[in-house]
Design the sequence.
C-alpha cells in the first residue's frame, strides 16, 4: 500500500522533463520581461550610457597605459576620477571658448540690428563685384532693403512670442543635454574603475549565450569602435588643424573658431566642405578673391586625401570592412541615432560582415557548433 502511494506521488522521468522545460520557459520569460522593463525605465538615459561605453572603449588603451604607469591601490578612485575630469575638460573647454566667442559676436549682431532699424541694410560690396547681374542686384537691394522702413519692417516680422518660445526650448534642451552629459561622466567613472571586470563579464555572457562566435562578434564591434574613433575623430581633428592654419594665413575672420567647426564637421563624411565653403564666401564678401580660391583648393585637397586614403586605411584596416559599408554605416547611423550613429553604425556593419563571412566561409564550424 505504501509503495503504491509513493509511486503515485513520485513524478516520473517524463514529468521531470516537462517540469524542467516549463521552468526554463518561465525563466526566459522572466528575463525578457525584466530586460524590457529595465530598458523602459532607463530609456531616457540610454544615450548617456552608450556614450560612456563608447568613450571607455575609445580611451581604453590610454587608460590602460596610465594604469601601468600608476598602478591602482585601495578603492581605486583617484585615477578614474582624474581620467573622467580630463574627459570633461576636453569637452567643456571648447564649449566655453565658443560661448565667449558667441557672446562677443552677439554684441556685433545687436549693433547691426539697431543700425538696420535706423538706417536700413546697406548694399554689400560683393554685389557690386558680381561678374554679371551686379547692377540689377544692387538696384533691387537699394529699393527693398537699404531704406529704414525696410529694415524696421524686417525686424518687426520677428514675433516676440515665437522668439520667447524658441529661447525656452533652447534652454530646456541645454539643461537636458547637461544632465545627460553629467550621467555620461558618472557612468564613465565606473567604467574606468571596473572596466576589466565589466569586459570580462560581457565576454563570458556572449560566450554562454552565442558560443565562441558571440565573443568574436563582441571583439569585432570593439575593434570597429577603435577604428571609427581613429578614422573619424582623429582625422577630423587633423583636418580642422590644417584648415585652421589655412584660414589664418588667408585672413578668414575667427580662424580658430572656424577651424574647430571644421574639425567637428569633418567627423561626418562630406561635412568639412560646408565649413570651408562658408569661409570662402566670407572672403569673397570682403573682396578677397584669391584667398578664397586658396581656401577652397586647400580644403578640397585635405578632404580628398583624408576621405580617400587616410580614413579607409584606419577604419577599414581595423574593422576588415570595405569603406563603402563603413560609409553607409556612418551615414545610416547618423540618420537613425544622431551623433551616436557615427560609432554604432560601423560597429553594427562590422558585426554583420563578420557573421556573413563566417556563415559563408566556415560551414564545417557551423555543423560542429550545431552538433555540440
Sequence:
Amino acid at each position: 500500500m505504501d509503495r503504491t502511494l509513493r509511486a503515485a506521488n513520485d513524478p516520473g522521468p517524463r514529468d521531470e522533463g516537462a517540469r524542467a522545460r516549463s521552468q526554463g520557459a518561465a525563466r526566459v520569460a522572466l528575463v525578457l520581461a525584466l530586460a524590457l522593463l529595465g530598458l523602459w525605465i532607463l530609456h531616457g538615459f540610454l544615450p548617456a550610457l552608450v556614450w560612456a561605453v563608447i568613450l571607455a572603449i575609445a580611451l581604453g588603451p590610454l587608460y590602460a597605459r596610465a594604469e601601468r604607469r600608476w598602478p591602482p591601490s585601495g578603492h581605486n578612485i583617484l585615477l578614474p576620477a582624474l581620467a573622467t575630469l580630463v574627459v570633461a575638460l576636453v569637452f567643456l573647454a571648447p564649449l566655453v571658448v565658443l560661448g565667449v566667442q558667441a557672446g562677443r559676436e552677439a554684441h556685433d549682431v545687436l549693433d547691426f540690428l539697431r543700425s538696420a532699424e535706423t538706417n536700413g541694410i546697406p548694399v554689400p560690396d560683393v554685389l557690386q563685384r558680381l561678374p554679371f547681374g551686379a547692377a540689377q542686384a544692387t538696384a533691387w537691394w537699394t529699393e527693398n532693403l537699404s531704406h529704414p522702413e525696410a529694415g524696421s519692417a524686417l525686424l518687426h516680422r520677428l514675433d516676440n512670442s515665437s522668439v520667447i518660445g524658441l529661447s525656452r526650448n533652447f534652454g530646456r534642451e541645454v539643461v537636458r543635454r547637461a544632465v545627460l552629459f553629467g550621467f555620461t561622466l558618472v557612468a564613465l567613472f565606473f567604467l574606468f574603475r571596473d572596466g576589466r571586470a565589466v569586459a570580462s563579464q560581457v565576454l563570458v555572457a556572449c560566450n554562454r549565450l552565442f558560443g565562441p562566435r558571440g565573443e568574436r562578434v563582441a571583439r569585432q564591434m570593439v575593434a570597429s569602435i577603435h577604428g571609427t574613433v581613429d578614422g573619424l575623430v582623429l582625422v577630423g581633428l587633423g583636418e580642422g588643424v590644417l584648415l585652421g592654419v589655412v584660414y589664418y594665413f588667408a585672413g578668414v575672420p575667427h580662424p580658430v573658431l572656424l577651424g574647430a567647426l571644421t574639425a567637428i564637421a569633418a567627423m561626418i563624411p562630406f561635412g568639412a566642405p560646408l565649413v570651408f565653403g562658408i569661409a570662402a564666401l566670407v572672403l569673397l564678401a570682403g573682396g578677397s578673391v584669391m584667398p578664397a580660391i586658396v581656401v577652397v583648393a586647400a580644403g578640397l585637397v585635405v578632404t580628398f586625401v583624408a576621405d580617400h586614403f587616410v580614413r579607409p586605411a584606419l577604419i577599414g584596416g581595423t574593422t576588415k570592412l570595405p569603406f563603402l559599408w563603413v560609409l553607409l554605416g556612418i551615414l545610416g547611423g547618423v540618420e537613425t541615432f544622431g551623433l551616436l550613429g557615427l560609432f554604432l553604425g560601423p560597429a553594427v556593419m562590422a558585426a554583420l560582415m563578420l557573421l556573413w563571412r563566417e556563415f559563408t566561409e566556415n560551414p564545417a564550424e557551423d555543423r560542429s557548433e550545431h552538433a555540440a
About this structure: The radius of gyration is 29 Å. The chain has two domains: 41-210, 211-372.
